[in-house]
Structures are given as structure tokens and as C-alpha cells.
Design a protein that fits this description.
Order of helices and strands: HHEEHHHHHHHHEHHHEH
Strand content: under 5%
Low-confidence stretches: 1-7
Number of strands: 4
Number of domains: 2
Organism: Dehalogenimonas etheniformans
Protein name: Zinc-binding metallo-peptidase
Distance between the termini: 31 Å
Oligomer: single chain
Structural class: mainly alpha
Largest sheet: 2 strands, parallel
Mean pLDDT: 90
Length: 339
């Protein structure tokens, strides 16, 4: 393993040096980066939607988010640097967010910020429509896929996680240009939520954003860990959880029953990026966790010596994707891949 590289993957000397650098010492800024221009695009969308005075500020943090009750947007620090985006992909096996994906998350976080700016969550009507804002925030939560009670915007079924996220996702769909939300959600309970957002946006369209002076969540200037430590923290997700057992081994053998052919591990590796993207899209499990999950399953097929014939490639990969997706769903709802 290369010193400073938690994954053992080969890195360029400049990337290895980056890993040993404290994040706070990288002197990152939104100014002058693509994030600055994407934020301007967000403000244009808000203006077009009738919220010209609503321009939530943004800062670099450890992940996407809004500090509870504070109408500002936290953006993952690595998105402020092309070199860090490249390193993110190399170390985690997951490409950093594209411009389109960044806009999706900006709209979602703008929903939180709008909620906080006008304290909508304190109003009885908001609670009646979305639920109790003070409900416990859970990392693991059960979902009803394709429920007509909720909109879908960012990957997975995130609106079902918490009433605050339900509002943020609804706001994001309402804001997205060309979403045709009135048509798409016609006749569903989700439409009532969208109409509520439309109504409160009209109500507050001339009111300035109120910034509450409170501490931010993990601003980049306070992130004193090295990039190496940062990635090691993320990689612990997978290694702390049991993934393989004899039953799963039998399922993998059924997915790849061929006794001759090329190693299944190599075939899956070639499809890994697309697999990770689709599993993330349909479950909402974070991509770096999905990537590590797929990598562990690849290692297991290698240990089992599983093969794949070219004629059976498509069917075997479909079965593998279903197995991995099921495990990802388990993790979301139970916090573990296998009980």
C-alpha cells in the first residue's frame, strides 16, 4: 500500500502528497470555481420561480447540508478543486458530482434554507402537510418505493427520511426547470405538497432572506484532519459491517454458475462505475459506500473462483446487480448488510 493512500490504489506523486495535507491547509474557496457559477445558476432559477430576494449563502464543508435552522448551504469541499475531484475518484472509485448533480443537491439544500429562513416548520399548516419537524432524524429508515405521497429528486427515496427532507425534496422538484411537476404528480398526495410550496413561495417572494448568526456545521477552515484520515474514516463504513456469509456465497455461485470462462471479478470491475451509479440512484445509499460494497463482492467472487462465459454475461451481471441492490437496501433500512 502506498503511504498515505487508504485504498492501496496507485496514485501520482502529487496525489500522494495531497493525501498527507490537512484539509484546512488546502486554502479552498468557492470563489473562482465552477461552484460559484453553479450558485449563480441556482439564484437565476430562484429568481425565475419568483424568489428574486432569496439567495442563500454557501460555504465549503465535509458534506452536503444545511446547519439546522440556518439558511446557508454546505457544499463538499472537494468540489472546489479539480485536483481533489480527481483524487476523490481515484481513492473512492466514485466520480465526483457532475454539474447536473451539483445543481440537484443545491436545489435540495435551497429547500432546507428556504424552510429555515421563514421558519415554515414552526407553522401548523407545514406540520399538517409534512409532519413533525422535531421528529428524530434517523440515518436508517424504512421506505415505500414509488410511494405517491412523496416526490423524487435526489437519488433514492430521500423525501421519506424526515419531514424536513420531504419539504426540501418537494421544493427542489418545484424549482427544477422543466420538471412539469403539476403534470407529473397530478392526482397524487405529493401534488398537495407541491401546491403548498408554490403558495408559500408566492407569499414570501418579496421578503429578504434572514440569516441567523449561528455556528456552521464543519466549515472547511476547521477541518484539521488530513485527506488520508478523511478517506480512512469513510472506508470504515464497509469494514465494520459483515457482508459475506455462506448463504450469500451460494447466491453468488448461482449468479455465476459457469465452470469455464473469464473470471467474474474482472467482468464486474469493468461495469463497476455504472453499477455504482444505478444502485445509488435506486436506493439512495451513498456512492462511496455502494462502491466499497461492490468492491467487497468482487473480491468474494474472486475468492470463490467464479467464472463467466461471454454468452451468459448479461444475465449474470443482472443477477449480481440485484444482489448488490438488495444488500444496499438492507443497509439503508437496518444499518447492516446481512443480519
Amino acid at each position: 500500500m502506498i503511504p498515505g493512500n487508504p485504498t492501496g490504489k496507485e496514485l501520482a506523486p502529487s496525489q500522494a502528497r495531497l493525501l498527507s495535507t490537512r484539509i484546512a491547509d488546502l486554502q479552498l474557496s468557492i470563489h473562482g470555481t465552477r461552484l460559484e457559477f453553479l450558485l449563480k445558476d441556482l439564484y437565476k432559477e430562484l429568481e425565475t420561480a419568483g424568489l428574486a430576494n432569496f439567495k442563500p449563502e454557501a460555504y465549503l464543508s465535509d458534506e452536503w447540508g444545511c446547519p439546522a435552522g440556518v439558511p446557508v448551504i454546505g457544499i463538499p469541499f472537494y468540489l472546489a478543486s479539480p485536483d481533489l475531484c480527481e483524487l476523490e475518484c481515484r481513492v473512492t472509485g466514485v466520480e465526483a458530482e457532475s454539474d447536473d448533480e451539483i445543481m440537484m443537491y443545491l436545489r435540495h439544500e435551497a429547500g432546507h434554507a428556504f424552510n429555515y429562513a421563514h421558519k415554515l416548520y414552526e407553522q401548523a399548516e407545514w406540520s399538517k402537510i409534512f409532519g413533525n419537524y422535531k421528529s428524530a432524524y434517523r440515518e436508517t429508515y424504512g421506505v415505500v418505493p414509488f410511494s405517491s405521497k412523496f416526490v423524487r429528486h435526489i437519488p433514492g427515496w430521500y423525501a421519506q427520511k424526515h419531514p424536513d427532507d420531504d419539504f426540501a425534496e418537494t421544493f427542489a422538484v418545484w424549482l427544477t426547470p422543466g420538471s412539469e411537476w403539476a403534470k407529473v404528480y397530478k392526482g397524487t398526495q405529493a401534488l398537495k405538497k407541491l401546491l403548498y410550496v408554490d403558495k408559500v413561495a408566492e407569499r414570501h417572494n418579496h421578503q429578504p432572506t434572514v440569516i441567523t448568526k449561528r455556528a456552521l456545521d464543519t466549515p472547511v477552515e476547521e477541518m484539521t484532519m488530513t485527506l488520508d484520515s478523511w478517506y480512512r474514516t469513510f472506508s470504515q463504513h464497509i469494514h465494520e459491517k459483515q457482508i459475506t456469509n455462506p448463504i450469500l456465497d451460494e447466491d453468488l455461485k448461482r449468479a455465476f454458475p459457469d465452470v469455464t470462462g473469464e473470471p467474474a471479478a474482472g467482468v464486474i470491475e469493468q461495469e463497476k462505475i455504472q453499477l455504482v451509479y444505478e444502485i445509488n440512484r435506486w436506493t439512495g445509499l451513498e456512492r462511496h459506500i455502494v462502491s466499497e460494497l461492490v468492491e467487497e463482492l468482487i473480491k468474494r467472487t474472486e475468492t470463490l473462483g467464479l467464472k463467466i462465459e461471454p454468452a451468459n454475461k448479461e444475465a449474470s451481471l443482472k443477477t449480481f446487480a440485484i444482489i448488490a441492490t438488495t444488500l444496499a437496501t438492507n443497509f439503508l433500512s437496518r444499518g447492516t448488510f446481512i443480519e
